[in-house]
Amino acid sequence: MRVEETGSFGKWRSFFWPIHSFELKKFIPMLLIYCFIAFSYGALRCLKDSMVVTASHSGAEAIPFIKVWAILPCAVLLTVFFTRLVNRYDREKVFYCMMAFFIAFFVLFTFVLFPAREYLHPHGLADQLQAFLPPGCKGLIAIFRNWTFVLFYVMSELWGSAILTVLFWGFANEVTSVGEAKRFYVLWSIGANMTGILAGQITVFLSEGLHISWIPYGKTPWDQSVLFVNCIVIFCGVAAIAFFRYLNKNVALPKNSFVPEKKEMGKMSMRKNIAYLFQSKYLLYIAIIVLAYNVCINLVEVVWKNQIKQLYPDPSSYHGYMGEVMIWMSVLATLISVFVSGNFIRKFSWTASALVTPVITCLTGTAFFAFVVLSNLGYASLAGWIGATPLVLSV
Q: What is the structure's pLDDT at 177?
């Protein structure tokens, strides 16, 4: 058994900092990479919702259409692209290619697509379609009308799934032993949650009507909020690449796991990957878990975000509220990571730890929808007694 898996710490150090000094050159760069990526995702989550939900002739009803008609096909294409990269290059080059692809898009959107949105969005044709098609197609017309915003939403969403989940955690699982993971992962999660607090604070600050007159970008504070958030995301992406480069050049990492397989098995096509997925019960169950998770999230977020728009129709106000949500969500997640998650994982199995999320989702989701239904069935009197409208309470 390796030293890092059997080394002992004192009571308090094992609780707050169970890291050996010789592990710092590996732990710290990976922590920083994760924090930069997680911070970017937090900032993008607030911005993408504010941009799409408050866009012209749009709302939360556009989100399901975006998920089906935009994110799903783009995710499939990105998976094919990622599979080709993995079959052709080592993990370091794959990381650089994926990061460069996303950074290039955010540069393009910030300095080309967003400033020219009024010329690029087909409002006239969308109005004609809206007059011709049934009301149920409003969300589909909205994503056609505001296609640059939808593209930004898609890339922001894929940043979380492709960069944060697949790219980083795939790399982390490959170079981190099981013994290290029990100690590293909780601390990485704490760091990522704290960056969520920072991302929320920056979002709230930028949504408070900040407008710098000498910057030749945008006519409103909202325009400059988009500029600043995207510039921060671009900087964080470049910083993550720099630390990843340092890690690969200065730290002895385990050998790339898929290189021998490529020599023995040859390249795996997308069809073979899907066939392999259905042959493996382990991978198939993971796929079902991911599918069920996304269904739950999508069912809740459409109703919730539609109510937020009713309360905050202005994009800057909507953006600021999403920043406040990000702050409190990150604070709660940080406290749970420090005082609950680590001890829970150490005392119970990984299965018991993983089951906490769906159980909480079931309980809180049931309570949320019950409250929404009750608010439409005469719950307004109780809300008035509390001192808030049903809309405020449900949001």
A: 86
- Give DSSP secondary structure letters for 136-156: GGHHHHHHHHTHHHHHHHHHH
Report which residue type is found at 270. Answer: M
Cβ contacts of 149 within 8 Å, gap of 6 or more: 51, 52, 55, 58, 117
Give the pLDDT score at 295.
Answer: 85
The residue with tokens 């993995």 is 86
> Phi/psi of residue 252, each to 5°?
-75, 105
Quick one: 285 exposed, middle or buried, by C-beta within 10 A (0-12, 13-18, 19+)?
Answer: exposed
Helix, strand, coil % in the chain, rounded to nearest 5: 85, 0, 15
Q: How many CB atoms lie within 10 A of CB 58?
A: 23
How many other C-beta atoms lie within 10 A of the C-beta of residue 393?
Answer: 17
Given this model, what pLDDT does residue 343 score? 72
Residues of the chain with pLDDT under 50: 1-6, 258-265
Q: For the whole model, what pTM was predicted?
A: 0.85
Please report, as a single letter, which amino acid is at residue 30.
Answer: M
